[in-house]
Amino acid sequence: MSANDSPYRSVRVSADLDSPLSRWLWLVKWILAIPHYIVLLFLWIVFVLVSVIAFFAILFTGRYPRGLFDFNVGVLRWSWRVSYYAYGALATDRYPPFSLGPEPGYPARLEIAYPEHLSRPLVLVKWWLFAIPHYLVIAFFTGGMRHGWCGGGGLITLLAIIAAVVLAFTAKYPRDVFDLIVGLHRWVLRVAAYAALMTDEYPPFRLDQGGDDPAPAPAATPAPAAPPAPHWT
């Protein structure tokens, strides 16, 4: 297996296409999602502040504080779920939960492996210099960085609208379009995690399509070992 074909391990993006889907609910999802957009506006402000704090923490200690890491993962999860419900995919009618947690029962899921150590020199350049080629690509996917990480325009939203129109006339969401949309989101979220300093693993220039992420599931942080039982003599 070549380096280009090796699995990307840091970020895992999965999605399930719900069926059946309402033929016409997508016309008003922009209204239904407004409460989430308002909350996410404030969450992303905090996300940026947390990333700045994490930058200095990594620069001086080589570690991303776990509480800050979990918060930023939660913001990305929340954004992904809302995008999946609304005009980033329109692939579920289940209303997104107001939650930063993993929500394994929801059809759009995101996991990011917690890094025990991050490169201190790399933190100075990866979020802008090294990520520039990816920024140019995902700007086309999302309609520009001003629309956020999870799609608010561009190719992703165009494909979602096409799928919704097909759904309205056939009662079926085209599977090929779904696979492509999820693949585009997977690319965007991998870059988001890298640019937010959450991993040193460089995102591949690869469109991994489909709802099942080919990346291995991030390993769980092992629980502290229990103290040895007293030995009586």
Automatic annotation (TrEMBL):
The chain crosses the membrane at residues 34-60, 127-145, 151-171. Residues 215-233 have a biased composition (Pro residues). InterPro entries: DUF4389. Residues 213-233 are annotated as: Disordered. Keywords: Membrane, Transmembrane, Transmembrane helix. This is DUF4389 domain-containing protein. It comes from Streptomyces sp. R33.
